[in-house]
Amino acid sequence: MESRLLSVFGKQFVRGISTTSSACGKRNFKKFPIFNKRGTKIFKAQQAKHPHPDVPIYDYGVRPTGYKIGNKYVQVDEMIPEIVVPDLTGFKLKPYVSYRVSDIVAPPMTPEELFGAVYVRKITEDFKNGKIGPDNQSLEPSPEEKMTAEEARAKVQAIRSDIV
């Protein structure tokens, strides 16, 4: 605290700078927050039974898993978060991906691209080896050639989701 006396024509002025606020008198709870882990055991016990309105119970951003009725806490199973973690055994990539990696944006797949991704290689090999019948059908169809349109579309969507 800094104070300075100033005298002008016999009158004395006092100029002061205070670094504390005077809200709530001597109990300025807003300036010095006492969170859950701070304070004595007696203070924590008092806060648990009768919380002081100026000292909020700080939850550190954690959502509650129930609600309070009077002094009783009711646990709700649906409010407990369920963490789903995939099984990454045999996964080839490392768990860290750099933020400097450029974004990969895949445009919508056209029917020509779908045909090229699924069928072209097998048809070309069958043509070179002479395994195409009189009606231009493969004499030894692969599992890809036996797929229906819906199965092929689902397979391509799975491949595209792995790329993106």
TrEMBL record:
One of its GO terms (cellular component) is mitochondrial large ribosomal subunit. GO terms for molecular function: structural constituent of ribosome. Pfam families: MRP-L27. Keywords: Mitochondrion, Ribonucleoprotein, Ribosomal protein, Transit peptide. Residues 130-149 are annotated as: Disordered. It comes from the Eukaryota. It is found in: Mitochondrion. PANTHER family: LARGE RIBOSOMAL SUBUNIT PROTEIN ML41 (PTHR21338:SF0), MITOCHONDRIAL RIBOSOMAL PROTEIN L41 (PTHR21338). This is EOG090X0IZW. It comes from Scapholeberis mucronata. The lineage of its organism: Eukaryota, Metazoa, Ecdysozoa, Arthropoda, Crustacea.
